[in-house]
Amino acid sequence: DAGVTQSPTHLIKTRGQQVTLRCSPKSGHDTVSWYQQALGQGPQFIFQYYEEEERQRGNFPDRFSGHQFPNYSSELNVNALLLGDSALYLCASSPELDRSNTEAFFGQGTRLTVV
Amino acid sequence: GDSVTQMEGPVTLSEEAFLTINCTYTATGYPSLFWYVQYPGEGLQLLLKATKADDKGSNKGFEATYRKETTSFHLEKGSVQVSDSAVYFCAFKAAGNKLTFGGGTRVLVKP
């Protein structure tokens, strides 16, 4: 089992551009969450997808959007990039069953640098 | 609102020393509590968890007890190794499947 895989691992973009990050969940997991981790800080919840719909959303602007595919993989899109969007973006997957107690498995993250 | 407060680092220790990282939380309902660890250049790994009051989570010599009365989940290890050098995050999961994290505590263990 490859666990949670994210691509790309590193990315450099210019202010105003758009970016798409990708995540494949752990086998058997159907729920995908995205987190933003700024340097030296804890991860902040962006949103969560289940059954191809956004189920929960954190305090992030509409520039952040996502998608989940029928195979449970997910994309995170960020439009009109700002310097402050530079961060490590983490994807986490978990099974919907017993969702309050089960462990979320994290990928290695995508390091986004906006210049 | 929901939040996690954990002691700021860095915490610098000698090998075989005792480690404590304090964590308190503010959450609605009855959350599940977690400690995650992040090694340099890597994602987060679950270290241990506790799902109800007075539960003790343990793994790799680390322990934490769910204290509902003090809304705390302090992490302890009796004898740290150099390989324990990492950033440790306290987190909880309340309603839904969303994790709320603290700011992280960097631990550096010197030989």
Bulk shape of chain A: globular
- The secondary-structure class of chain A comes to mainly beta
Summing up helix and strand content along with how strands pair, one would put the structural category of chain B as mainly beta
State the end-to-end distance of chain A.
36 Å
Q: State the helix count of chain B.
A: 0
> Rg of chain B from C-alpha positions?
13 Å
Ends of chain B: how far apart?
41 Å
Beta-strand percentage of chain A? over 45%
Largest interface: A-B, 29 and 25 residues
Question: Assembly type of the shown chains?
Answer: heterodimer
Fraction of residues in helix of chain B: under 10%
What average pLDDT do the residues of chain A reach?
Answer: 93
How would you characterize the largest beta sheet of chain B? Answer: 6 strands, mixed
| Helix/strand order of chain B, N-terminal first | EEEEEEEEEEEE
- Figure out the total of helices of chain A: 0
Number of strands of chain A: 11
Please specify the SSE layout and strand pairing:
The complex is a heterodimer of chains A (115) and B (111).
Chain A: E1 5-7, E2 10-13, E3 19-24, E4 31-37, E5 44-50, E6 53-57, E7 64-68, E8 74-78, E9 87-94, E10 105-106, E11 110-114
Parallel strand pairs in A: 2-11
Antiparallel strand pairs in A: 1-3, 3-8, 4-5, 4-9, 5-6, 7-8, 9-10, 9-11
Chain B: E1 3-6, E2 11-14, E3 19-21, E4 23-26, E5 32-38, E6 44-50, E7 56-59, E8 62-65, E9 75-77, E10 86-93, E11 99-101, E12 105-110
Parallel strand pairs in B: 2-12
Antiparallel strand pairs in B: 1-4, 3-9, 5-6, 5-10, 7-8, 8-9, 10-11, 10-12
Write a brief caption for the model.
The complex is a heterodimer of chains A (115) and B (111). Chain A is mainly beta and 115 residues long.
Description:
The complex is a heterodimer of chains A (115) and B (111). Helices cover 0% and strands 50% of the residues of chain A. Chain A has no helices and eleven strands. In chain A, strand 4 (31-37) and strand 5 form a beta hairpin. The mean pLDDT of chain A is 93. The radius of gyration of chain B is 13 Å and the shape is globular. In chain B, strand 10 (86-93) and strand 11 form a beta hairpin. In chain B, strands 2, 5, 6, 10, 11 and 12 form a six-stranded mixed β-sheet that branches. A four-stranded antiparallel β-sheet of chain B has the order 3-9-8-7, with no helix packed on it. Chain B has a two-stranded antiparallel ribbon with strand order 1-4. In chain B, 40% of the residues are buried. The chains are: A mainly beta (115), B mainly beta (111). Chain A binds chain B through residues 4, 31, 33, 35, 40-45, 48, 50, 55-56, 58, 90, 92, 94, 96, 99-101, 103-109, and chain B through 4, 32, 34, 36, 42-46, 49, 51, 89, 91, 93-104.
